[in-house]
Structures are given as C-alpha cells and as structure tokens.
Amino acid sequence: MATRASDTPGVMTGKPLIESDRVEGTTVYDRSGNNIGAVRRLMIDKMSGRVAYAVIAFNTFLGLGGEEYALPWSKLNYDTDLEGFRTDVTEERLRGSPTFYRDRDYAWTDRGRERELHDYWNAPFYWGP
C-alpha cells in the first residue's frame, strides 16, 4: 500500500498556514476513518504562539452543546483525502481522558495537571522537556 504524505507525520501538504476559523469545525477521524468529533476551538500558548490543544467536541446538535475534551495538538494529523484530522485516538479513549478541561473554573497554570493530560495521551509536552 502506498504511503501518502498526509500519513507521514511532519510532512506538509498544501499551504503551510491555515486560518483558525477554518480549523474550528473540522472533523476528527480515528484510524479507521470513523468520525469521532470536530475541533471546537484551539488552545494557544500565549508566549510561544504554538497550538497546545485542540478541544474536540462530539454529541453536538448543529455544532452546539455536546461533550468537550482537550487533545494535545501533536495527536492530530491533517488528512487531505478526508479533509479532516486523523488521529490514533478512539472515542472511548477520548471519553476516558482527564476531565479538568471541562471544569469551567480550571486555571491553565497547573503544569502538573497538563502533564497528566500529556502522559495519558503519551504525547510530548508543547512547552518543551
């Protein structure tokens, strides 16, 4: 089976930048191509300008309501064939992820809690080692 550039992490296809409003609402698919949700919003590190997390929403009605989960940006790869993001994450694993994002009073200044999220996803820290 041929490997597409979109299947290879770190290989860019298409234009190098994308507008944030074009990312919001983009479908997220698991490895099998099943729709597991859509990007609700991006969480951006103020100092570095890097995208830290994509907040994935599912069980929505016309894009409203539903459940939201923070997923490290590094867990998503854009698939040009699907015109959406592909991930190795399943909906079940997403539902079992740490829930502090959904706590509206949560302050994103606790690196310990962020480490918990990154450890759960086996994802590198966006802020470095």
* Unreliably modeled segments: 1-6
Give the overall pLDDT as a whole number. 81
As a percent range, the share of strand residues is 25-35%
Q: Determine the N-to-C terminus distance.
A: 36 Å
Main sheet specs: 6 strands, mixed
What would you report as the Rg, rounded to the nearest angstrom? 15 Å
Classify the helix fraction into a percent range: 10-25%
Reading the helices and strands in chain order gives: HEEEEEEHH
Q: Note the overall shape.
A: globular
Biggest sheet, spatial arrangement of strands? 4-3-2-1-6-5
List how many beta strands DSSP finds: 6
Helical stretch tally: 3
Q: How does the helix and strand content classify structurally?
A: alpha+beta
Keywords for this entry:
single chain; 129 residues; alpha+beta; six-stranded mixed beta sheet; 3 helices; disordered N terminus
Molecular structure report:
The protein has 129 residues and is of the alpha+beta class. It is built from three helices and six strands, in the order H-E-E-E-E-E-E-H-H. The chain has helices at residues 20-23, 91-95, 111-121, and strands at residues 27-29, 35-44, 51-58, 67-72, 77-79, 84-86. It has a six-stranded mixed β-sheet. Strand 3 and strand 4 form a beta hairpin. The longest helix has 11 residues, at 111-121. The protein is globular and about 35 Å long. It starts with 19 loop residues before the first helix and ends in an 8-residue tail after the last helix. The model is unreliable at 1-6 (pLDDT under 50).
